[in-house]
């Protein structure tokens, strides 16, 4: 249901995923810490969930941007649908009926679901969330989650006061009409309600900085916020009127910590659960009080080229930067990277090479035999650069551009693990070894928020950047790869790219084999054009204090049904 950006080299899986019935459970790896069947879960106690970067504090699903805030949202909010471990979408708070022509969905939500302030959830709250994202004043990145609804475009452009495709039947029934047949309409539809009464009187443009988002967020999830120390701490208590029953824990603290201290903090019971950086893996495995859970990530690390900028007026990308126009340069930079060596040395081997943005677990992933795998080959990189006219004309060891002018590329990356700086130096050295003068932009790594602010706002100094995207399980690239997607950070598109993305969700794609072939062709296009260098898929590591029971992880998250977590006596 959503795609999200991640915190550079220190990743967690905090992503609400869309359905994909083609992925079987046998393709996924899960970890679980469950109580002995003979034991009765004990109620009470508070645990601390650790996070390694200051959070932004956008605690409303419609506005959050990164995993830093999403981790909190997983405790306090809930979507209308649930996603199983096998990545299939199933009814949750809402069930649905789909019309024979696949354009009309009638949703029924369960009565009696309460917001943290006591209000009952109705479909008016869901309708309000859809209208918020469709509003002309909305500046977030989730318009793609409502654009399929009939009448949204007119509403978004200020030409209509209502969204014609949304109709409230009664407090618990909502009918949504789609503007066309899309095989994954339900998967991409925005699933999170917003409390209409709480936001009454607040303009959409003012919502991101409003008290309901920043200071007093409320949700329908198992825990409610009681205290926020901006950027550092969120305290939550059990929501007694949670519709699935009061949580076993009394509360949860979401606390920012220095990830270099994670081993000591877990050993001393300062934190109970956290996503662990790879450089702490070996040390954490030695702790008697800690269990390590591993799961695959539906995400990919990439190095993106900046092809242009975002036009706020037209809400489209503009490919106005010619620096990386020659794909031979981009391909050469791909070949020049010793990706496998870097993963082994700086990520402790916890990852695997990828060549497209479709995860290896997906039914839509093209076999590597049908695409270029860009193996480490400095000689091939040099040959491509020579062919493209990038040669060293002044004998200083670095190549000039085809016009003979100095050619310098600025590279941006994020702080994270203890190996982040050394890893960055290794990447830059790979390129320097083939004669490319690639320099760290500003001379240092950026923290999470500064990095994404520069990348998203198309800071002119950002030319090449190392990021990570979390993926939805459905292979539709919408949200990240079209010309109308704000999160298309490289600002790359093409006519064929747009055609294939549309074709992948069209009526012909109800034939799964047809749809798979569409995505095969799209991956071939991306693999050849190299709008970004696909670096690796990762293994997510979650460290859990043994006193904390019933923690379960999968490729989506390590915060799954936290209302069932409990503290085992004798492990305090």
Structure overview:
The chain is an alpha+beta fold. The protein has three domains: 41-75 and 221-289 and 546-571, D-Maltodextrin-Binding Protein, domain 2 (3-Layer(aba) Sandwich); 78-209, Dipeptide-binding Protein, domain 1, CATH 3.90.76.10; 297-539, Roll (Dipeptide-binding Protein, domain 3), CATH 3.10.105. The chain is built from 14 helices and 25 strands. It has helices at residues 67-76, 123-134, 152-156, 185-188, 211-214, 262-267, 281-284, 327-335, 339-346, 378-387, 420-432, 448-456, 495-503, 512-529; strands at residues 4-5, 31-33, 46-51, 81-83, 89-91, 94-98, 104-109, 166-170, 173-177, 223-229, 233-238, 251-256, 273-275, 290-296, 299-305, 309-311, 316-318, 351-352, 408-412, 437-440, 464-470, 532-545, 548-549, 551-553, 566-567. The strands form six sheets. Strands 1, 3, 10, 11, 12, 13, 14, 15, 18, 19, 20, 21 and 22 form a 13-stranded mixed β-sheet that branches. A four-stranded antiparallel β-sheet has the order 6-7-9-8, covered by helices on one side. A two-stranded antiparallel ribbon has the order 2-24. A hairpin with a 5-residue loop joins strand 6 and strand 7. The radius of gyration is 24 Å and the shape is globular. The model is unreliable at 1-31 (pLDDT under 50).
């Amino acid at each position: 249901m959503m795609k999200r950006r991640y915190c550079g080299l220190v990743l967690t899986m905090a992503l609400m995923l869309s359905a994909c019935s083609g992925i079987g459970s046998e393709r996924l790896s899960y970890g679980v810490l469950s109580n002995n069947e003979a034991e009765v879960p004990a109620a009470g106690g508070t645990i601390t969930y650790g996070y390694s970067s200051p959070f932004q504090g956008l605690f409303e699903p419609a506005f959050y941007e990164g995993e830093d805030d999403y981790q909190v949202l997983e405790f306090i909010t809930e979507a209308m649908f649930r996603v199983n471990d096998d990545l299939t979408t199933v009814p949750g708070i809402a069930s649905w009926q789909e019309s024979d022509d696949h354009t009309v969905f009638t949703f029924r939500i369960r009565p009696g679901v309460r917001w943290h302030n006591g209000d009952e959830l109705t479909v008016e709250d869901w309708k309000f969330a859809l209208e918020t994202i469709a509003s002309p004043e909305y500046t977030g990145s989730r318009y793609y989650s409502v654009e399929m609804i009939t009448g949204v475009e007119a509403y978004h452009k200020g030409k209509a006061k209502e969204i014609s495709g949304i109709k409230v039947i009664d407090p618990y029934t909502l009918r949504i009409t789609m503007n066309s047949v899309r095989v994954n309409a339900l998967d991409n539809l925005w699933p999170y309600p917003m409390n209409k009464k709480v936001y009454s009187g607040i303009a959409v443009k003012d919502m991101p900085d409003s008290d309901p988002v920043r200071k007093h967020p409320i949700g329908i999830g198992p825990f409610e916020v009681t205290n926020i120390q901006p950027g550092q701490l969120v305290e939550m208590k059990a929501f007694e009127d949670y519709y699935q029953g009061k949580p076993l824990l009394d509360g949860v603290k979401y606390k920012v910590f220095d990830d270099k201290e994670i081993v000591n903090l877990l050993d001393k019971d300062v934190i109970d659960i956290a996503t662990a950086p790879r450089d702490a893996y070996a040390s954490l495995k030695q702790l008697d009080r800690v269990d390590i859970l591993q799961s695959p990530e539906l995400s990919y690390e990439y190095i993106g080229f900046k092809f242009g900028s975002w036009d706020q007026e037209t809400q489209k990308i503009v490919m106005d930067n010619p620096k990386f126009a020659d794909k031979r340069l981009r391909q050469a930079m791909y070949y020049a990277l010793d990706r496998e060596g870097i993963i082994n040395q700086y990520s402790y081997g916890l990852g695997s090479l990828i060549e497209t943005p479709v995860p290896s677990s997906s039914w839509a992933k093209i076999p590597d035999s049908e695409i270029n795998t860009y193996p480490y080959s400095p000689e091939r990189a040099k040959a491509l650069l020579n062919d493209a006219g990038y040669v060293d004309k002044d004998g200083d060891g670095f190549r000039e551009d085809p016009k003979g002018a100095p050619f310098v590329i600025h590279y941006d990356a994020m702080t994270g693990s203890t190996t982040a700086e050394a890893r960055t130096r290794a990447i830059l050295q790979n390129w320097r070894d083939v004669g490319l003068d690639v320099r760290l932009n500003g001379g240092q790594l950026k923290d999470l928020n500064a990095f994404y602010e520069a990348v998203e706002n198309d800071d002119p100094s950002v030319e090449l950047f190392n990021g990570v995207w979390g993926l939805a399980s459905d292979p539709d690239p919408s949200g990240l790869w079209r010309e109308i997607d704000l999160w298309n950070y490289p600002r790359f598109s093409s006519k064929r790219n747009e055609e294939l993305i549309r074709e992948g969700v069209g009526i012909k794609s109800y034939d799964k084999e047809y749809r798979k072939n569409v995505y095969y062709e799209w991956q071939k296009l991306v693999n050849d054009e190299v709008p970004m260098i696909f670096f690796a898929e990762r293994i997510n590591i979650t460290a859990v204090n043994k006193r904390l029971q019933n923690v379960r992880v999968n490729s989506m998250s390590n915060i799954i049904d936290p209302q069932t977590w409990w503290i085992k006596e004798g492990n305090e």
